Amino acid sequence: MTRRALVTVLLVLAVVALFAVPLLLDGGNSEYGGTDAAVAAELEADGHSAWFEPLFRPAGEVESGLFALQAALGGGVLGYVLGRLRGRRPARDGDTNP
Q1: Can you tell me the distance from the alpha carbon of 42 to that of 35, in angstroms, rounded to the nearest whole number?
Q2: Model confidence over 34-78: pLDDT tens digits?
């Protein structure tokens, strides 16, 4: 195994450990929730109320699908911009083979 392959394997294992270790140490005893819900509960406990209601409240599956669509569009735009920036230098230098 080459050094490059070993480093790649170790990095992948480190990333997996970053996610797996907290879940294994927890033992399934805690509730994982978003910060939006936690802040809303804290504000309601303090006596604050919302100023307005949302115009559109999608179902859970639709909401997660819209979030995934937003992430995909953002990733596409970021990839396009980085590709254009990467291709700008060879085009400027007159290199035909980027």
Answers
A1: 10
A2: 788 888 889 989 988 888 888 888 888 898 999 999 999 999 999
Q: What distance separates the 2 farthest-apart alpha carbons in the chain?
A: 65
Sorted by sequence, the CB contacts under 8 Å of residue 9 that are 6+ apart come out as 1
57/89 Cα distance (integer angstroms): 46
Contact criterion met (CB below 8 Å) for 87 and 98: yes
- Spatial distance between the Cα atoms of 60 and 24, rounded to a whole number of angstroms: 27
CA-to-CA distance for 38 and 93, rounded, in angstroms? 53
> In terms of DSSP H, where are the helices of the chain?
3-26, 35-45, 60-93
